[in-house]
Design goal:
Blueprint: E1 6-10, H1 12-24, E2 29-35, H2 43-52, E3 60-66, E4 69-74, E5 79-83, H3 84-87, E6 108-111, E7 120-124, H4 127-138, E8 142-146, H5 149-176, H6 188-195, H7 200-208, H8 218-222, E9 228-230, E10 235-237, H9 247-251, E11 274-280, H10 291-301, E12 307-313, E13 321-326, H11 329-334, H12 349-356
Parallel strand pairs: 1-2, 1-12, 2-6
Antiparallel strand pairs: 3-4, 4-5, 6-7, 7-11, 8-11, 9-10, 12-13
The structure holds flavin-adenine dinucleotide and iron/sulfur cluster (SF4) (3 copies).
């Protein structure tokens, strides 16, 4: 058993990778804080799109997506609006086949949909998640109020819209190219059969080369022979896979999903214990209600976890995300705010793996 107990933050696809790591390996991830996610963007294409508005990444103080627009809050305090119908062209290809809005396999999911300004929507999924939220309320890290029926209806409607739109996309893609493996309904036994026949070349042909890779980095982290490296756009492999290794194919969130993690898309926000509107009583510089920052503060302060796996921005490249592990609450606070592009979130865990080895 790993001695590290890590709380991670991630989008639904990254949380699925974490859940598969927990299912198939001795994972150091203990608490999963999942974000809502309608779509994500390519950093490079975003830079190019900004040029059309005479802007650079560095001009931007905060990004926000709301009511059909990407809002760019500039350092000059002006606001620029880009219609999502235009921003659509910079959405990562893999997001078009994603049918999950709310990080259904997390312990706690957090987003803004449904809640009023300054408040966040929080979905408690597991007993562990429930204990954390109750503890954070008792210790006055956060306050909560009821999530009303109309708020719930809005969240369900948007989650349903995402599922329906992208199921249509999956149908078109499957007609033209390969099956979208993570949407295949298979028994655990038959998944095991598929896995034992698969290695990196199957990951490449079924996920990476067909625009399904979410660039989470789980394959790179799990490879016992360090054959995989992730550049800015995709995982690459150098070397030869031993015939008995299937680790990368097994944990990838875009290959088959074990039965206990699968949703047949009939429950639009997945299984849950409770949904609340919540607000931080400690922090205010986050994206919405600063709830992710505050829950990580609560978890580290109370030593419920040993470290937090977060996504910060690079100092030399404005808004370019990178993942890091930290015990330092100031670092967690600094990493608040949403970066609308991707990075291999599991990369920092490689150091832990090396320590354990
Ligand atoms: C790509 C993306 C799309 C999103 N789309 C929606 C949406 O459609 N609807 C909605 O309601 N909410 C969406 N969210 C979630 C929303 O933007 C906030 O992250 C969420 O409401 C939590 O806000 P907060 O103030 O509690 O977080 P904060 O306290 O500001 O903490 C944010 C945390 O998010 C992590 N983070 C930031 N960027 C990334 C990233 N790219 N990948 C992984 N982790 C990251 C950081 O580690 C930080 O700890 C999206 C988030 C992302 C990353
Ligand atoms: S695949 Fe895209 S839309 Fe889906 S959770 Fe990941 S980043 Fe968000
Ligand atoms: S050695 Fe295993 S984990 Fe590494 S690339 Fe090959 S199949 Fe994947
Ligand atoms: S191929 Fe690797 S980086 Fe891409 S989604 Fe699968 S595990 Fe993540």
């Amino acid at each position: 058993m790993s001695e590290n107990r890590i709380a991670m933050v991630g989008t639904p696809c990254e949380i699925m990778a974490a859940s598969k790591l927990q299912h198939y390996t001795d994972s150091p991830i203990d608490v999963k804080l999942g974000l809502f996610c309608m779509e994500n963007f390519s950093y490079k294409y975003f830079e190019n799109l900004l040029k059309e508005y005479d802007l650079k990444m560095d001009d931007i103080e905060k990004f926000q997506i709301d009511k059909g627009f990407v809002f760019l809050l500039l350092k000059t305090k002006e606001t620029v609006k880009i219609p999502l119908s235009i921003a659509k062209r910079i959405i990562r290809k893999n997001c078009n086949i994603c049918v999950e809005l709310t990080s259904e396999t997390s312990d706690i999911s957090i987003g803004s949909i449904g809640s009023s300004d300054g408040w966040s929507t929080l979905i408690i999924r597991t007993k562990k998640g429930e204990e954390i939220v109750n503890g954070a309320i008792e210790q006055e890290f956060i306050e909560s109020k009821e999530f009303t029926e109309s708020q719930f209806n809005l969240l369900s409607k948007l989650a349903g819209n995402k599922i329906n739109k992208n199921l249509e996309h999956i149908e078109r893609r499957e007609f033209l190219a390969r099956p979208v493996l993570y949407q295949r309904d298979k028994s655990d036994d038959s998944i095991l059969g598929e896995i034992t026949d698969s290695n990196f070349s199957d990951l490449k042909s079924n996920v990476i080369d067909v625009g399904a890779c979410v660039l989470c980095g789980a394959c790179e982290y799990v490879c016992p022979y360090d054959l995989i490296t992730i550049d800015d756009t995709k995982p690459n492999m150098k070397g030869e896979c031993p015939h008995d290794c299937h680790a990368c194919f097994t944990v990838c969130p875009r290959t088959f999903i074990p039965q206990n993690l699968r949703n047949d898309n009939s429950k639009v926000i997945g299984d849950y214990i409770n949904v609340l509107s919540v607000k931080s009583l400690k922090h205010s510089q986050g994206q919405d209600g600063s709830i992710v920052t505050t829950l990580l503060d609560y978890l580290l302060t109370n030593k419920i976890v040993t470290e937090a796996l977060i996504v910060d921005k690079q100092d030399h490249l404005a808004w370019k995300p990178y993942a890091k592990l930290t015990k330092d609450i100031d670092e967690v606070v600094k990493s608040g705010g949403t970066k609308y592009s991707v990075c291999p979130v599991f990369k920092p865990l490689r150091n832990i793996k090396e320590e354990v080895d």
